[in-house]
Amino acid sequence: MQSPQKILEDLQKNSYAPIYFLQGEEVYYIDAITQYLEEKLLTPAEQNFNLTIVYGKECSMATLLTQARRFPMAARLQVVIVKEAQEMADLKSAMGQQLLLHYVHHPQPTTLLVFAHKYKTIDGRSAFGKALSKHNVLVTSKKLYDAQLPSFIKSFVQNLQLSITEQAVCLVEAYIGNDLTRIANELHKLRINLTANSTITDDTVEAYIGLHKPFNLFELQKAIVQKDYPKSYQMIGICASSSKEHAALPIVTILYNFFAKLLVLHQTKETIPTKIAQQVDIHPYFIKGYLNAVQKYTLHQTMDNITYLHQADLQLKGINSNMNDYQIMKELIFKLMHP
To answer: Is the pTM of this model over 0.90?
Structure first.
């Protein structure tokens, strides 16, 4: 099994295999590899006759493999891509798997067959999974851990012919989280506003990625620390109007973690900011904000707020509450800032 980064590097060197099975939770790499195979291997003229894109829900294995076995027209190869392959019923049936395995053992050398199997993975312990892994390029794209995000951001920025400060990397993480697709989109948009070889600073991130956003958890957290009631309630209203994008439970979890860190800070005897940051597992760039929050919320108030957040978590799960999510969050914000 190869890493997504290695596959992209090989493709850029014109090194490719007859079959790619791309699977996993992190769709960024699946989309990136699929897009490269779709756009870069054939010229626009060759694509007219040699690029076939089908969708899993609408395609049978027999029809797909018939297409894969044909020869390219006026080109050295053809590319056949199955998007949303996780919706392909034949991938779950014994007959469909048998047909694919026969092709895997005898692939058409002038065809690149690509399965974009998002969000899910084939059971690697099954005979089908083992055969896929052994006889073609199987890529499992996993969500990055938080510790891996800085390297991803720096590498992506470097490919955009830009550089980025450590503080700016930290802000990108705080504003966006580990959504690689959104990180890539936001950095691409930021690149349009900068000249080549520019440096992305924390001011740049706030101007183009952070502060113009109607809602993000980082800004809500800052508003609560500053006890900015109007802004906090406004942001909760925005959250309620787009509940699919800003679900209440993750917000409560992040605020709970924030006050849990304040609890540690209240009890630490450490005085050096960088060492304090290590104790509570935060980037040193943010330690000033946390130390400011310690001044705003006493130890007793911090413990009360942790209790309020625990109660809100239970209410959002339907325990001891007949309020909707917006009412629960509005009441929670009031309690947090009036401990």
So the answer is: no
